[in-house]
Write a structure and sequence with these properties.
Elements lengths: L4 H12 L2 H18 L8 H12 L4 H12 L7 E8 L5 E8 L2 H14 L3 E3 L8 E10 L3 H10 L6 E5 L2 E6 L4 H10 L7 E8 L7 H15 L4 E6 L6
Helix pairs in contact: 2-3, 2-4
C-alpha cells in the first residue's frame, strides 16, 4: 500500500495526546450519525461504524451516550459534511473532511490555515484522485498467515495484509468494512488498534527537514480547527 502504517499510528498517537479534542470531534460525529438515522447502532450502520472507531480511540461511554441522547432529544442542529482539498509545502497533498453548521465559517478557517502555513486550497478533485478510500484494520496477537486464513475461510479477498512490528494491518475495499469486521469477530477478535475508513495516498513523498517542519505545522493547524474531523495526506513522516 502507499502509506506505511507507522504514519497512521503517528497521527493516531498525536490525536490521542489531546483527548479533549478527540472526544469533542467524536461526540459531534456520533450526534450527526444518530440524527441521520435511528439512534440505535443495530439499525443505523453509519452510527455503528462511528462507534467502532470511537472504541479504538477509547472515547468514554458517557460522551457517546450524551451525543446519542442529544439526537434522541430532537435537537435541531443541522450539519453539512464537507471535503476540502489542497497542497502543502513541496507539492504535498492534503484532504480535509469537516462537519459544520456554518459552511462559510469553515471554508474561511480552512483556507486561512492553509494560507498561513505554507499551503493553498485546491479545487474539488485536484487531490482526491491520488488517494484511495480504504478500510483499515489493525490487529495484535495474530500473524499475517493466521489473519489471511480466517479471511479466506470467510470467503473474503482483501487488498493487502502486512505485519509491522506486533501489529497485523489489513487493507480492504471500503464496502468490505462490515464483512471483514464480522469475520474477525466470528474468529473471536473484538479488539482492534484501528478499525476505520480512511483515505490512503497511492504514493507517499518525503520532505526535507525544513519542509517537513512546515508541513507538520500546517497539519496541526488544520486538525486544531473545531469543524475539521479528519485530515489525510501523502507525506511519509518517517519513523
Amino acid at each position: 500500500m502507499g502509506r506505511k502504517w507507522n504514519n497512521i499510528k503517528e497521527k493516531k498517537a498525536s490525536k490521542d495526546a489531546n483527548t479533549s479534542r478527540v472526544y469533542s470531534k467524536f461526540a459531534l460525529e456520533i450526534y450527526v450519525a444518530a440524527k441521520q438515522g435511528e439512534p440505535d447502532p443495530e439499525s443505523n450502520q453509519a452510527l455503528k461504524f462511528v462507534l467502532e472507531r470511537a472504541k479504538t480511540y477509547n472515547v468514554p461511554r458517557v460522551i457517546i451516550d450524551r451525543a446519542i441522547d442529544k439526537a434522541k432529544g430532537g435537537a435541531e442542529e443541522n450539519y453539512d459534511e464537507l471535503r476540502y482539498e489542497g497542497f502543502g509545502p513541496s507539492g504535498s497533498m492534503i484532504i480535509v473532511d469537516a462537519l459544520t453548521n456554518n459552511v462559510n465559517r469553515t471554508a474561511s478557517t480552512v483556507r486561512a490555515a492553509f494560507g498561513k502555513n505554507g499551503g493553498n486550497m485546491g479545487v474539488s478533485g485536484s487531490v482526491a484522485y491520488m488517494f484511495d478510500n480504504t478500510a483499515v484494520f489493525g490487529i495484535e496477537g495474530k500473524t499475517s498467515d493466521e489473519v489471511l486464513e480466517l479471511l479466506m475461510e470467510a470467503d473474503l479477498d482483501v487488498r493487502d495484509i502486512i505485519e509491522e512490528e506486533d501489529t497485523v494491518i489489513v487493507y480492504a475495499e471500503p464496502d468490505q468494512f462490515h464483512a471483514v469486521q464480522v469475520a474477525f469477530k466470528d474468529a473471536g477478535i473484538t479488539e482492534f488498534t484501528v478499525a476505520e475508513l480512511t483515505m490512503l495516498a497511492q504514493n507517499d513523498i518525503s520532505l526535507d527537514p525544513e519542509a517537513q517542519a512546515q508541513f507538520e505545522k500546517l497539519i496541526d493547524a488544520l486538525e486544531d480547527l473545531e469543524d475539521v474531523q479528519r485530515v489525510y495526506h501523502n507525506v511519509d513522516l518517517g519513523e
